[in-house]
Specification:
single chain; 689 residues; mainly beta; Trefoil (Acidic Fibroblast Growth Factor, subunit A); Immunoglobulin-like; 4 domains; six-stranded antiparallel sheet; four-stranded antiparallel sheet; 54 strands; globular
Length: 689
């Protein structure tokens, strides 16, 4: 009978060049061992090939460490654990991915069931299954069986290894593109250096993984999308899972595969209906020789929305226009566009008159400020003024929403951008701000992401008071998380990204890919589930945090290329990344918690969330919209979409005094880290009852 399962733990990779695992049965005279032992933490015994057998399918167990060749293991740059001079590989029998699974030795094949990750908490996970190398039943005696089991963080899944490698490779140099055509490109880079050896290069565009290649490969062909502007870059990764910082970004815009000068037909049959101060439009789809890619909606001859599709999915044929003036007539028409910006004739025009009062959840939108940098963290003070961080410029602004007047409070020290999404990020104010004046700030530094606090004295940041509360959160070009939120328990919650290494998200000894919880002085709360800062784990790049009226924490998380997700966070919960993205992947694995709502990434890339009167509001960038969902028990129901393309990419949404919202855009300079090259807006959104 297996020891009780406490919690799934598929932890992160640490770098290991040569390691030893011990499991043995028969004690013959020792032969020379060229590898290293791996020792069970609970037992002090070695991972051992039973009876020193070199036959395929020989099993493994624990045995006293005697330095023989059947206890000498070598971790290769390909992630294999090899034993014997004529090597055999540690192998999951039958490529089984469910617990329990049998481990054995077998001739090395290069298959995924022979690839392993050595993790910072001492566990060893199978790459294919995500299961942990486990001493069955927690047995510590000679001859105890070793197999695969769901990761649970217990001592019978912990191993001591020698030759540990914790050094990340250097940054890949000189990324470059050649042979760019409509659907393909060749991407190349210069080799990284590593103390043990580079095992893989991971190629991304705009934070999304495209492919991985071996550590000796310095050029690869990529599939690209005609007309889409992407930023390509590459990370190096060693066999122990240490990941380099990202290369510089190469921007590409592939040409279209064929010239197209034919415009779509006009959308037909436009109709409009009114509910209070909300107008709903519907029309019949336009046609095109290649395909309609978007519809632009015009109100009184000004564009107020865009509905987009993809090369395979046509755009929707409806639009909701909210927050309009009461008893006012509005005229609308719609045009269609194809991928090469050929624009159709106008649809018919429809004129509607709004009702006497707002009859929908969203009743009005008022611009209160423009901004040349990217507003990121935003809080409201007791006097009704707003403080917000400027991500790339590294300073904090006070805004009077009634007058639009701004005051620069000062620059946060030691902030560094990442040529991507890092910089000056989350912001929170002390519950006793009137007395202690503490601002809590999350930012990227030259070496890490960190949480600090600085006093705001006399309308100026007193940088001499800065205290570093938590450092060592890994940084990278993307996936830096960054949201801060105080809970009703008085604790500070922070969302952290996986630093573009999914294994970090499953490592309970890592601060990355987590929701963290800390005391106001930076210490670890005594009731945290794992005795460290980790509150929940298995997250990719969470950026939204909000508490509902019951004191429950909701979280918004970027997916890779399939779906974003909204989660209800529970203490100690595992949300599945990287094995599970939304509901895609091995999401049915025991111990994984399912999201409460998912969104296709083309309609999402959502960053901030806010809760007002137990309705959840979600601000989305790529989706250029705001979602509203009613919290009902543990579910999200009655999901509605607002501002679909009206204001572009939406980054941050926060509660405003009087039951409204603050809403910010993130349209220009979003991924280049250049200060003051943006053209952004901050809005006040008036909500209905």
């Amino acid at each position: 009978m297996h020891v009780p399962l406490r919690r799934r733990l598929t932890t992160t990779m640490i770098a290991v060049g040569v390691m030893t695992l011990a499991l043995v049965a028969v004690r013959a005279p020792a032969e020379a061992a060229t590898g290293s032992p791996v020792v069970g933490v609970d037992s002090g015994r070695c991972l051992d090939v039973v009876a020193q057998s070199q036959a395929d399918q020989a099993r493994l167990n624990l045995y006293d460490c005697v330095g023989q060749a059947n206890q000498a293991w070598t971790l290769t740059s390909a992630g294999e654990l090899r034993v014997y001079d004529q090597p055999k590989c540690l192998d999951v029998a039958g490529q089984d991915t469910t617990a329990p699974a049998v481990v054995q030795i077998y001739r090395c094949t290069g298959n995924a069931n022979q690839k392993w990750r050595l993790n910072a908490d001492g566990s060893i996970t199978g790459v294919q299954s995500g299961l942990c190398l486990d001493v069955t039943g927690g047995n510590t005696a000679n001859g105890a069986e070793v197999g695969m089991w769901t990761c649970n963080g217990q001592g019978n899944q912990k191993w001591r290894t020698t030759g540990a490698d914790t050094e990340a490779p250097s940054v890949p140099g000189n990324p470059r593109v050649s042979d760019l055509v409509c659907d393909a490109a060749t991407f190349a880079w210069n080799a990284s250096a590593d103390n043990v050896g580079v095992a893989f290069y991971d190629i991304f565009h705009d934070g999304q993984l495209m492919k991985s290649v071996g550590g000796t490969t310095l050029s690869t062909s990529l599939t690209v999308v005609a007309g889409a502007t992407w930023g390509l870059y590459v990370n190096a990764r060693d066999a122990a899972g240490n990941v380099s910082q990202a290369s510089t970004t190469v921007s590409i815009t592939p040409p279209h595969c064929q010239d197209d000068s034919e415009a779509p037909t006009a959308p037909a049959g436009l109709t409009g209906s009114v509910s209070g101060t909300t107008v709903t439009l519907n029309w019949t789809a336009a046609t095109d020789n290649i395909g309609v890619r978007a519809y632009d909606v015009f109100r009184d001859n000004a564009k107020v929305g865009t509905i987009t599709g993809t090369a395979t999915t046509p755009p929707a044929t409806s639009f909701i226009d909210s927050g309009l003036a009461a008893r006012t007539a509005y005229s609308y028409y719609v045009v269609a566009r194809d991928a090469q910006a050929n624009v159709s004739p106008r649809s018919n025009t429809v004129t509607v008159t709004t009702g006497a009062a707002c009859g929908s959840p969203v009743c009005g939108v008022t611009p209160i400020a423009t901004e040349t940098d990217l507003p990121w963290g935003l809080v409201t003070l007791a006097d009704g003024t707003i403080l917000y961080t400027r991500r790339d410029a590294h300073d904090i602004i006070r805004l009077n929403p009634a007058t639009g007047a701004k005051t620069t409070l000062g620059t946060v020290p030691n902030v560094q951008n990442t040529d991507g999404e890092g910089g000056l990020l989350g912001l929170a104010v002390s519950a006793d701000f009137a007395g202690d004046h503490w601002l809590y700030i999350m930012h990227t530094s030259p070496s890490d992401n960190r949480i600090v606090r600085i006093r705001l004295d006399d309308d100026s940041l007193n940088t001499a008071t800065e205290q570093i509360l938590l450092s060592g959160i890994l940084r990278n070009k993307y996936h830096d998380g960054g949201r801060l939120r105080f809970g009703p328990d008085g604790k500070l919650y922070a969302s952290t990204g996986d630093a573009q290494n999914g294994a970090n998200a499953q490592n309970l000894n890592s601060l990355n890919g987590k929701v963290l919880r800390l005391n106001t002085d930076g210490s670890v709360p005594s009731d945290n589930p794992y005795g460290n800062y980790v509150w929940s784990y298995g997250h990719r790049n969470p950026q939204g945090l909000a508490f509902d009226s019951q004191g429950r924490l909701w979280e918004q998380e970027f997916g890779d290329g399939i779906m974003d997700e909204t989660n209800l966070i529970t203490k100690g919960g595992n949300y599945g990344w990287p094995a599970c993205e939304g509901t895609s992947g091995t999401c049915g694995t025991a111990g994984f918690l399912a999201p409460k709502r998912t969104y296709p990434t083309s309609e999402g890339s959502c960053s901030g969330i806010a809760i007002v009167r137990d309705a959840l509001y979600v601000a989305c960038q790529r989706g250029t919209r705001m979602y509203r969902a009613v919290i009902s028990g543990t579910s999200l129901i009655d999901v509605q979409t607002y501002f679909n393309g009206t204001y572009g990419r939406l980054r941050t949404v926060e509660p405003a005094p009087g039951g409204g919202l603050w809403l910010t855009t993130s349209n220009v300079g979003d991924k280049d880290s250049t200060p003051n090259n943006s053209d952004e807006r901050i809005f006040r959104v008036t909500l209905g009852n």
